[in-house]
Amino acid sequence: MNENFLTALVVILVLILICRELTCWYLKQNEIVGLLKSIDSSLKNPAGIENNPSPQNLIKCGGCGKENIKGLTHCVSCGGTLNQFIFK
Ligand SMILES: [Zn+2]
Predict the structure, then answer these.
(1) How far, in Å, from the CA of 88 to the mean position of ligand 1?
(2) Distance from the CA of 50 to the center of ligand 1, in angstroms?
(3) How far, in whole angstroms, is CA 23 from its chain's centroid?
(4) How far is CA 50 from the centre of its chain?
(5) Cα–Cα dist 6/10, whole Å
(6) Residue 44 and residue 47: Cα distance in Å, rounded?
(7) CA-CA distance, 18 to 26, in Å (whole number)?
(8) How far is CA 4 from the centre of its chain?
(9) Distance 23 CA to ligand 1 centre (A)
(10) Is 70:84 a contact under the CB 8 Å cutoff?
(11) For 12-64, how does the pLDDT look when each residue is reduced to its tens digit (9 = 90+)?
């Protein structure tokens, strides 16, 4: 009788430990996937400016007036040289 109780206790403990391990594994997988996604997006867009084309990240072309992302040396529209020091 006492032996049966101890066996049941051990089985329950093992089940609890297995459930805990599975939960930890699942949470860890989620964390890894999130981290990989952020690394992937950082690699695709190092400066993060294309996802956030705010006016501070844009520079107007003196030739055609097209707004280009800051950091480019030439206009994507007309190909003219961009002056990085004139913003408007
Ligand atoms: Zn231009």
Answers:
(1) 13
(2) 18
(3) 24
(4) 14
(5) 6
(6) 9
(7) 12
(8) 52
(9) 55
(10) yes
(11) 999 999 999 999 999 999 999 999 999 888 888 766 555 556 677 788 888 89
Interval between CA 72 and ligand 1 midpoint (Å): 11
Residues 8 and 15: their CA atoms lie apart, in Å, by: 11
**Phi then psi dihedrals of residue 84, to 5 deg:** -70, -10
Ligand 1 centroid, distance to 38 Cα (angstroms): 33
Q: Report CA(2)–ligand 1 centroid distance (Å).
A: 87
Write down the domain spans for the chain.
1-44, 50-88
Q: Say how many Å lie between the CA of residue 43 and the centre of ligand 1.
A: 28
Task: Look up tokens 């964390």; give the residue.
Answer: 31
Domain 50-88 classified CATH 1.10.3230? Answer: no
* pLDDT category of residue 73 using cuts at 50, 70 and 90: confident
Structure tokens at 35: 């981290």
Q: If you measure from the C-alpha of residue 63 to the centroid of ligand 1, how many angstroms do you get, rounded to a whole number?
A: 5
